[in-house]
Every structure is written in structure tokens, then in C-alpha cells.
């Protein structure tokens, strides 16, 4: 199946991707507050992962939340607003440390299940593809083929693929896991010499506007480590 709109919406589960730019002098303090008090937030809804950017961006964190539907998210947000511990222990000290906040709503593509790394201690690569307008009907099949070509090389582990519903449309976020940055670099080098990968990527990039990569390190509270 391609990234068909109908297929991804047969269940109502969606993911909120939240990206925060932290004040450069406050990153250490922000991480300390997260490590100490973020369990208060996780008590309200499911956290998929929480990472800080190591390469490709600086002083940035990304966290992903899973919701059953929009009513579920509304109920969670209402409960958080009324949670005095969360507001007092985390929100009050954390907000002055944040420069900017951004959120998106996205669905997992129907041909990808949310995965887990084979072990803890690796690194995550967050790749954002801005595709040409026209949606999955235009570029979904070619994009899937390019992803599968990389998966089939075996050098990297696919964690998840998200397609935006709110935010900048025609955006696809792909999360990969690797044992280390050097392992990823070696795998990428081999993949670029694989004729099957080259052919699939060449077909897909016809629909690509831009691409951005970040190397991410999971925080203590992250279920994906």
C-alpha cells in the first residue's frame, strides 16, 4: 500500500511531534529539569521518545507523543493544565529556558509499524523530507521504495515513518537507529554504492523539495533508548 490517506486513518491514532529550541546557555539546565520531573508528564499519556540533537542542529530537543484520537489529546491537555505538580515543578522552571516551540500532528504510514532498536545505547537519525505538493498519491510509491531499499541493506534499523496532517504538509519524518555514528557512516557509504539503493533514491528524489538530517541522543526519560 502507498501512503494512502484512507489507510492511515482507519484507526484514529496519531502522533504529536514537539520540537523545542532551548536557549544555548540553558540546555544543561533544561535536561536536568526534564530528567527530574518529566515522569509527571508521562503519567498523563504515552511518550514514544525524547531526544536531544547532537548533529544537524544545536540546543534542540524532539519528543513524540501518541494519542488515541483528538478527544484524547484534548482531555490530556486539560488534565495537564490542572496538574499543580506538573505546572509548578516542570512548566514554571522550564518555560524560561525555551526559545521556541513547534508542534506537528502526524500519522504513521500504513506500511510501517513503530519499531524498537535491537538494544539500548545507540543513536537515532531523524530525517525530514519535504516532498512536492500533491501528497502521497504523487510520491508515496517511490518514497516507499527508497525507504525499503535502505532497510534491505541491513546496516540500519527503521523505527518509524510519520506523515504530517497538521504543520507543514507533504512532510515526512523518518526515524532510524544505528549502533553508533561511525556505524551509520560506514553503512551509508556502502548503501551509496549499492545499485538498488541508487536506483530507488534516484526515482524518489524527483518528488523531493528538501531534506534535513539530525543525529539524536535519547534522554533518560525516553522509552526509545
UniProtKB/TrEMBL annotation:
Question: Which SUPFAM superfamilies does the record match to this protein?
Answer: Dimeric alpha+beta barrel
Q: Which GO terms describe its biological process?
A: mitophagy
| Entry-linked Pfam families | NIPSNAP (PF07978)
According to the lineage, what is the superkingdom?
Answer: Eukaryota
Coiled-coil residue spans: none
Question: InterPro entries from the entry?
Answer: Dimeric_a/b-barrel, NIPSNAP, NipSnap_domain
Q: Which residues form the NIPSNAP domain?
A: 15-113, 124-223
Q: Which GO terms describe its cellular component?
A: mitochondrion
Its family remark reads: Belongs to the NipSnap family.
The UniProt entry, under PANTHER family, shows: NIPSNAP-RELATED, PROTEIN NIPSNAP HOMOLOG 3B
Name this protein carries in UniProt: Protein NipSnap 3A
Organism taxonomic ancestry: Eukaryota, Metazoa, Chordata, Craniata, Vertebrata
Amino acid at each position: 500500500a502507498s501512503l494512502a490517506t484512507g489507510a492511515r486513518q482507519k484507526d484514529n491514532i496519531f502522533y504529536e511531534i514537539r520540537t523545542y529550541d532551548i536557549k544555548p546557555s540553558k540546555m544543561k539546565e533544561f535536561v536536568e529539569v526534564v530528567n527530574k520531573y518529566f515522569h509527571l508528564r508521562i503519567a498523563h499519556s504515552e511518550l514514544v521518545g525524547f531526544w536531544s540533537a547532537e548533529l544537524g542542529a544545536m540546543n534542540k530537543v524532539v519528543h513524540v507523543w501518541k494519542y488515541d484520537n483528538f478527544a484524547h489529546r484534548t482531555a490530556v491537555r486539560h488534565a495537564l493544565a490542572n496538574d499543580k505538580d506538573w505546572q509548578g515543578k516542570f512548566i514554571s522552571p522550564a518555560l524560561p529556558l525555551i526559545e521556541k516551540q513547534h508542534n506537528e500532528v502526524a500519522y504513521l504510514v500504513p506500511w510501517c509499524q513503530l519499531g524498537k532498536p535491537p538494544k539500548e545505547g545507540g543513536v537515532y537519525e531523524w530525517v525530514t523530507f519535504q516532498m512536492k505538493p500533491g501528497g502521497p498519491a504523487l510520491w508515496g510509491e517511490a518514497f516507499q521504495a527508497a525507504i525499503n531499499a535502505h532497510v534491505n541493506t541491513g546496516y540500519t534499523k527503521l523505527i518509524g515513518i510519520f506523515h504530517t496532517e497538521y504543520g507543514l504538509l507533504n512532510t515526512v519524518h523518518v526515524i532510524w537507529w544505528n549502533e553508533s555514528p561511525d556505524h551509520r557512516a560506514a553503512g551509508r557509504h556502502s548503501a551509496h554504492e549499492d545499485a538498488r539503493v541508487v536506483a530507488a533514491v534516484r526515482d524518489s528524489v524527483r518528488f523531493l523539495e528538501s531534506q534535513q538530517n539530525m543525529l539524536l541522543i535519547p534522554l533518560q526519560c525516553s522509552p526509545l533508548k
